[in-house]
Write a structure and sequence with these properties.
Helix content: over 70%
Number of strands: 0
Number of helices: 11
Largest sheet: none
Oligomer: single chain
Radius of gyration: 19 Å
Structural class: mainly alpha
Distance between the termini: 33 Å
């Protein structure tokens, strides 16, 4: 994914310094989280838009990635996706390597491991089971995080409704699951929850997108040796590199950037429930890219998830007002 570099936190951002702007480049001190002076609705709507755009990008990127599996297998696709995204982000962001504390580097390391683990496990899952059920199982991690971080009873109700929609969405495909694929998808969900937490902490400790760029570099160091061992020199074929670039832009750089920026505007509970839209978007991507059709129960599941997400966003806006 590509990302846009920012010089200051947008209006309505929840993560800011005492002066209302992010820390200077290379600063190692964690920024202080305060209530923004801008209207809550501005930050909310901006964060919602960023999150939805990121979800669309990553799910269509996953559908495109599935087209590469016959050529370089799942680990090869992960290596292409993460490594290309890391190179692009490091070149654009040019993060400063000095002046950071051990705690800052620990956050980056954990963030990178979460990124790499999430990608590796998810691609292993969709290599074995259909895209819709795989995303459905992966979303369970963020939903559990939403329940754990919710502070109002109504937030738990929205999360429960979203969870019901997630299970209904995958109902038609669960009979096709095998234990390994389901296990990989559930593991990806755990890594996804860790990604949300680490993403938020990295956004607070590092200026602009530096934390994400450094974490993506860590993820590349983890995934590249596995991809080379799996696919070898096939990774260097022009057609494979071209599709790998498309997957990297759609599935890594752009959505991770948008999600990092969204986390500066939305509470973790709202962010996590918004991620429950992923199965619905995955179903749409599967239909448009892979020719998968939607059943009546899947359409109903999409409606439930959208309703739950809208309710969670409204609750989050009330909490910040």
């Amino acid at each position: 994914m590509t990302q846009m570099r920012t010089q200051a936190a947008p209006a309505g951002a929840a993560t800011a310094t005492a002066q209302g702007a992010p820390a200077a480049r290379g600063t190692s001190t964690a920024v202080r989280i305060q209530r923004s002076t801008a209207p809550a609705s501005v930050g909310s709507l901006t964060g919602i838009g960023l999150m939805l755009a990121g979800t669309l990008s990553v799910q269509f990127g996953s559908a495109v990635a599935a087209l590469l599996f016959p050529r370089v297998e799942a680990l090869g696709v992960v290596a292409l996706r993460v490594t290309i995204a890391a190179v692009l982000l490091l070149a654009v962001c040019r993060p400063r390597l000095r002046g950071h504390s051990r705690a800052d580097w620990a956050v980056v390391g954990a963030f990178g491991l979460a990124l790499g683990g999430m990608n590796i496990l998810f691609y292993q899952a969709i290599d074995r089971i259909p895209l819709g059920p795989a995303v459905t199982l992966e979303v369970l991690g963020p939903l559990l995080l939403s329940v754990a971080t919710a502070r109002r009873a109504v937030s738990l109700a929205w999360a429960g409704l979203a969870l019901a929609g997630v299970f209904l969405l995958g109902q038609d495909g669960f009979d096709q699951l095998n234990p390994a694929g389901a296990g990989f998808a559930l593991g990806a969900g755990v890594m996804c929850a860790a990604y949300i937490v680490c993403n938020s902490r990295a956004g607070a400790r590092f200026p602009r997108l530096d934390g994400l760029a450094l974490a993506m570099g860590v993820a590349a160091l983890v995934s590249l040796p596995l991809g080379v061992g799996s696919a070898g020199t096939t990774l260097l074929e022009p057609e494979v590199l071209g599709l790998g670039l498309a997957v990297a832009l759609l599935s890594s750089g752009l959505p991770y950037t948008l999600e990092l920026l969204a986390l500066r505007r939305l509470p973790a509970s709202t962010f996590a429930v918004l991620m429950s839209l992923a199965p619905a978007v995955a179903a749409l991507a599967g239909f448009l890219v892979l020719g998968q059709t939607l059943s009546a129960s899947q359409c109903l599941a999409i409606a439930l998830v959208v309703a739950a997400s809208a309710g969670a966003v409204r609750t989050g806006r009330v909490n910040r007002s």
